[in-house]
Amino acid sequence: MNSPxxxxxxxxxxxxxxxxxxxxxxxxGRSDDAWSITLELEAGREYQFRYLVDGKEWHNDWKADKYVxxxxxxxxxxxxT
Length: 81
Known about the structure:
mainly beta, single chain, five-stranded antiparallel sheet, 0% helix, Immunoglobulin-like
């Protein structure tokens, strides 16, 4: 997640982890403000996800493969493996 966000924490939340808001924290690089995480996901599937920043702000990945509406009036990011 490349962003100028001055966040204290960022978590990857999605259908792959039951939308658990704490199970997949991202880490920040030493030399920049880029947040990252590496996951192994089953191939040939689509996964919906969003980023939870500081436990309160939801963000999409603007480089996602596509977006789908969610039940909260917004969209979820989708990655295809």
